[in-house]
From TrEMBL:
Residues 1-20 form the signal peptide. It comes from the Bacteria. The lineage of its organism: Bacteria, Pseudomonadati, Bacteroidota, Flavobacteriia, Flavobacteriales. Transmembrane segments: none annotated. Keywords: Signal. This is Uncharacterized protein DUF1573. PANTHER family: LIPOPROTEIN-RELATED, SIGNAL PEPTIDE PROTEIN.
């Protein structure tokens, strides 16, 4: 009889603990959503959906094009004046013209995937926003998927 009561108590405790953890996760998600909502700024504003792009593990010669999505959270038009990669293997492209308040735009970046190995590179964005320059990051690992050469027999 004691074993049955103990088993029932452990089961109830386990269910209660699981439900409490689920409730905490829901609260954390609400908090994260509130934090990501950026307030309007006076003048031009610059907010990125992600400031880091992780390519993960990609094959040598794979498509190295990705995009950073930005929003002008200011009250005046945003003008991207320059985008500069940290080396010649990282080539960014900037949006042409002005970005209206509340509008979205993209900054393209192309990494040379013919270079095998891990990489972490930056893109510096200069604009008329109050927080300038803004540094974005790309990272990942390029692997050579070529089959290994067969050893020669002598």
């Amino acid at each position: 009889m004691k074993k049955i009561i103990l088993l029932a108590a452990v089961t109830v405790f386990g269910i209660a603990t699981t439900n409490a953890q689920t409730a905490k996760k829901a609260v954390k998600k609400e908090t994260a959503a509130t934090i990501t909502a950026s307030p309007k700024v006076d003048g031009a504003g610059l907010v990125f959906e992600n400031e880091t792009i992780d390519y993960g593990t990609i094959a040598k010669g794979a498509d190295g094009k990705r995009e950073f999505v930005l929003t002008n959270n200011g009250t005046k038009p945003l003008k991207i004046t320059n985008t500069q990669g940290s080396c010649g293997c990282t080539v960014p492209t900037k949006p042409e013209g002005e970005i209206a308040p509340g509008a979205k735009a993209t900054i393209g970046v192309k990494y040379d995937t013919n270079r095998v190995g891990a990489f972490t590179k930056t893109v510096t964005v200069t604009s008329n926003a109050s927080e300038t320059p803004k540094v974005l990051t790309i990272k990942g690992t390029v692997v050579d998927n070529a089959p290994a050469a067969e050893p020669t027999k002598s």
